[in-house]
From TrEMBL, chain A:
Species this chain originates from: Hanseniaspora uvarum
Record-given protein name: Proteasome subunit beta type-4
The organism's taxonomic lineage, starting at the top: Eukaryota, Fungi, Dikarya, Ascomycota, Saccharomycotina
A GO CC term attached to the entry: nucleus
Lineage top rank: taxon: Eukaryota
Coiled coil: none
From TrEMBL, chain B:
Residue ranges annotated for the Proteasome alpha-type subunits domain, each copy included: 4-26
Annotated Pfam families: Proteasome (PF00227), Proteasome_A_N (PF10584)
Family: Belongs to the peptidase T1A family.
Regions annotated as coiled coil: none
Function (record text): The proteasome degrades poly-ubiquitinated proteins in the cytoplasm and in the nucleus. It is essential for the regulated turnover of proteins and for the removal of misfolded proteins. The proteasome is a multicatalytic proteinase complex that is characterized by its ability to cleave peptides with Arg, Phe, Tyr, Leu, and Glu adjacent to the leaving group at neutral or slightly basic pH. It has an ATP-dependent proteolytic activity.
Annotated protein name in UniProt: Proteasome subunit alpha type-4
Keywords linked to the UniProt accession: Cytoplasm, Proteasome
Amino acid sequence: MDALFGIKTENETILVTSRNFARGISIMNHQDRKYIMISDKIAMGIVGEAGDTAHFAAYIKANVKLYENSFAQLPTISFKDGEVASDADEKNDEEHVLSTKNIANFVRLELAKSLRSRKPYQVNLVIAGADGDLYMIDYLGTMVKQPYVVQGYAAFYAMSLLDHHYRTNLSEEEGIELAKMCLKEINLRMPASVGDVDIVVLSKTKAPRQFIIADKDLRKSI
Amino acid sequence: MSGYDRAISIFSPDGHIFQVDYANEAVNKGTLTLALKSKDCIIIASEVRSSLKLQATTTSKIHRLTDSIGMVTSGLSADARVLIKKAKVECESYEYNMDSTVTVDYIAKFVADTQQKYTQSGGVRPFGVGCLIAGLTEDGEGKIYKTDPSGVYQEWHCCSIGKNAKTVQSYLEKNIDMLKENKLSKFELLKFTVESLLEIVSNGSQNMEICLIDKEHGLNLVSKSTIDDIIGKIEKERDDAEKQ
């Protein structure tokens, strides 16, 4: 039972993915990573058919990189006393960086194309961006942008909690607490437990933060 | 007109393919570019022709293929753009397929292969482009490759192509023992690059673009102010030498 959801707080976007990899009735791996960082501002959580997820994620990342590299300008450095001294006024070339919206639409298009092929990708995704955009896309190419999104069966339990507790001005800590609350409910109600989870916190101002919440800590804290 | 330059796939009786020769001519008329290496870094540099008064921006001549490989071209810049795009796609595609970054020799061979294809198929003309592809291998060693429109590629210690490349090449040859020792620091190599460029390029930093590749920083353009400082230093040294 994979868990994949995202919550947008006032200044952060939080992505939650479970670390258990199950096949049939057995858990095969407790350290499965179900997200990739497309850039340091955009994370993509992906669940579904085992091989499809890895392949599709790599495909999207490669295409985004190719696009950005074909426009990217080289940064500039200076020398001081014969040593490299990086420039103070480092220009950030934002113009040719793809936004969360751009990437979400590209992913949706690729899934829509794939759906009409002989063997479609069976993957469901959540795309979270530091700019505060949060998208949910399923294998049919359905794309929705919401302040909180949940994929799969977990939605039955997490959605009502999020509907009730969500506010637009949540702080980072409150956002993570809300995620924990959802995980607790999922663990309580679902026939199989979620296990450890990966958390990615993307912030408008700070560097992205990636950490793990262990299942046993989760049970202790609540 | 001898009649043997109407199609690229026709040899002249003395064994030439004229369209390829003409493409080489385009390279020899192109902007001057050069690549040099030392123990822990590579420098690729290019002459930049002054832009027109009303032109908004000048496009960079130096391109990043991966985090440690750069490419610079001489010749028809429109052809170069297409060739660079092909190289970039191949780099990404290699990484996607193999889960490791391309090596300098691989991508140099790929570019040369692409150029060769355009000397042996119908309905196309060769790329009027010569390339210098330079980068660091995994253990930090520098490699410089040169390709030309016929599809030949060779590895060089240091190399220059384009207009007046012969003058610069002979300046590099004069100093080859020093370069082969691989002992120059980044700054010394940079200074030597500017000296080499000054053989041909006038107008100082305005008409130069220099890119430094090293392990820590990847590809970086050297700022105009740094180049101006170095030019000032070189001029002062020359004046002092004359006085003595």
